């Protein structure tokens, strides 16, 4: 077999291409491996990992990450190398850079340095990745600079996502706190109005009804027409007294404070019975629950009963109240016309608001709220909230 002539030019070209392919593979590994790691790390560990990988990629022995907070203060969030040398370098960093910048300053502790900006979603620089070396090395080429900028952009995206998530969590907690305070204020106002009505208008109506009854008993025999009018007035006065008591009970049922949740719920279910709807209890828990749990479950059941009376056209309702393994459970099930969740029939904006309120009350207690419904197959409300046994008053 004849040997091919040796071509030094071709061999050099092959070696050059091989080195270039190795460099590209190293850049690709830098980005891919770091990207996979960042998804599993906390923000502090993200910064340390990116800084270490960037220094190793360029064979530089010092590095740090500077970030600007919401108040404009620049702080060092990660570092690698001599604290003394990094301290002198930090004073020379340009935190307004928008593009990578390579600098050489012979005679200094760190004569070579690279600054790579971290830009947020608004394209504003909020941080700088600084790499430096204590000995002389070749300046990075454009592809290396692009790779490091991509690495910095990757870190910036993860940090910004973490900041946005933290902001959303804080806002969600603030909103939940405001809603909780609103519900407490609402209950306090309902209690105040209920007591005012009981001590004022309700007593006046009861007194009026008694005086009318006394007057009717002492009144001589009246003509049929006048007697019918008097009886109508007595009936109207009695109706006002009953309606006033129902209004007070709806605002703040004294039976809830005095006898507990089960009795209060059964009393509330009388509204269903009065409407001709059969009510069946499948599980009854006589235990007294913490005040916040009792009032929340009572309001949820009250809203559920309102929806049944207004929308369901049901003939039967099943209710259940249970306490098991530190969990209080409430179930309200009807055999009414139901609805498609998210697509209520007719105009049910008020019903949707009621469901949202039930969900929020449950969420504030750290529980779960489920509404199951289908057209012509009824609706079921399932509420489970934490209720530690050691905090439960029997």
From TrEMBL:
Protein's recorded name: Sensor histidine kinase
Alphabetical list of CDD domains matching this protein: HATPase_UhpB-NarQ-NarX-like
Lineage start: Bacteria, Pseudomonadati, Pseudomonadota, Gammaproteobacteria, Pseudomonadales
Cellular component annotations (GO), alphabetically ordered: membrane
Family matches, as Pfam families: HATPase_c (PF02518), HisKA_3 (PF07730)
Residues making up the signal peptide according to the UniProt record: none
Span of domain Histidine kinase/HSP90-like ATPase: 292-389
A GO MF label: phosphorelay sensor kinase activity
InterPro entries per UniProt: GAF-like_dom_sf, HATPase_C_sf, HATPase_dom, Sensor_HK_TwoCompSys, Sig_transdc_His_kin_sub3_dim/P
Keyword terms of this UniProt record: Kinase, Transferase, Two-component regulatory system
Entry's transmembrane regions: none
PANTHER family hit by this protein: NITRATE/NITRITE SENSOR PROTEIN NARX-RELATED
